[in-house]
Design a protein that fits this description.
The structure is a single chain. This protein is mainly beta. Helix content is about 5%, strand content about 40%. It contains two helices and 23 strands. The protein has helices spanning about 50, 210-215; strands at about 30-35, 40, 45, 60-65, 70-75, 90-95, 105-115, 125-130, 135-140, 145, 150-155, 170-175, 185-195, 220-225, 230-235, 240-250, 260-265, 265-270, 275, 280-285, 290-295, 305-310, 315-320. The strands form four sheets. The chain has a seven-stranded antiparallel β-sheet, with no helix packed on it. A hairpin with a 6-residue loop joins strand 4 (about 60-65) and strand 5 (about 70-75). The protein is elongated.
Length: about 325
């Protein structure tokens, strides 16, 4: 190599530390209401109706007709009886294991933002937090406008104590609408990116499969896929009251899920017999899998037989939550 010209230099694209930055993974549903603080699109939590006020807090997504960009839409309807009483935000917690080697380094958050009924200006809060829930604010300010509804801010990731601090859980990123004042009637966020350095590099989306796998480290939901009677798992008829099944998650989760939820009824088929069960217990929960026990006194299925389990009622699901 004897010559380098400007035409040979290409702006680098840094790794995006945020997960689901385009809000395309939505295991909890396409439209989610938030009566209290809760998750919408995967890895993003929302301040709830109980704190923001109004008549409803709702999150969804839409694809821009012109650019094809997937945008998060947050709505805050209100009326004279139920006015807005506080600020809103979306938040992502970032696990400490994904921050190794980044302490004391500059980092930049960039994103697209617009609103209806607000100032058109967002505000960003960034902090580190530990296992006791104590947060250390690293940045709390209006970001710099990049034009075309794009915004960015730069801060230094730091913590108190040793690195890595054994009590530390990670960091949080919050995007507030309307300069952290009362929530506007509607606001949008798109193409969020957290990267090392003080320069905003182009946003490049990961494949949907990659993004889904990253999200499933923290939350997994198994549904009937819109097909009533679809298969959930195999099982064994243990005794006259219980059928057991082993469930392995799609991938290893961050930790043993602290919450699980079951919806609908289940049909269990063994030999030439079948029974409907509504009582599903989840036990022996680890970060790799768990055990299902279907309980029904005198179920009538032949003890010792193998069986298979189907979603019996429409909209059935089993979900596991290992969020930070």
């Amino acid at each position: 190599l004897t010559k380098v010209s400007n035409s040979m230099l290409v702006q680098p694209v840094n790794h995006n530390i945020l997960i689901n930055p385009s809000f395309t993974v939505k295991q909890r549903g396409d439209v989610v209401e938030h009566p209290t603080g809760s998750y919408g699109p995967d890895r993003w939590s929302f301040r709830g109706l109980n704190q923001v006020g109004g008549t409803e807090v709702k999150s969804s997504t839409e694809v821009d007709d012109v650019t094809g960009i997937n945008k998060l839409v947050v709505e805050h309807p209100r009326d004279a009886t139920d006015p807005i009483k506080g600020s809103a935000y979306i938040r992502q917690y970032i696990e400490a294991v994904n921050l190794r080697g980044l302490y004391s380094k500059e980092m930049t958050l960039s994103f697209g933002y617009s609103d209806a009924g607000g100032s058109g200006i967002p505000q960003v809060v960034v902090g580190s937090y530990n296992s006791s829930g104590t947060t250390k604010t690293l940045h709390d300010a209006v970001p710099t406008s990049l034009g075309d509804n794009r915004w960015a801010c730069t801060f230094t990731l730091s913590i108190d104590g040793t690195i890595p601090d054994p009590s530390e859980k990670g960091m949080l990123v919050q995007i507030h609408p309307n300069e952290k004042n009362n929530a506007p009637s509607e606001w949008r966020v798109w193409e969020t990116k957290l990267e090392v350095g003080s320069i905003v590099t182009p946003f490049i989306a990961r494949s949907h499969g990659e993004e889904l796998a990253l999200c499933q480290r923290y939350f997994q939901k198994v549904t009937d896929g819109g097909v009533t009677g679809s298969t959930l798992t195999n099982a064994t008829v243990w005794d006259t009251n219980t059928i057991y099944a082993v469930w392995q998650y799609t991938m290893e989760m961050r930790a043993s899920p602290t919450k699980h939820e079951v919806g609908g009824s289940f049909g269990i088929y063994a030999g030439s017999q079948s029974q409907t069960f509504t009582d599903l217990n989840v036990s022996l929960i680890t970060k790799y899998g768990c055990e299902f026990s279907f309980l029904k006194s005198g179920h009538g299925l032949a003890v010792g037989n193998g069986a298979w389990v189907r979603f019996k009622s429409a909209g059935g699901y089993v979900e596991f939550d290992a969020e930070l």
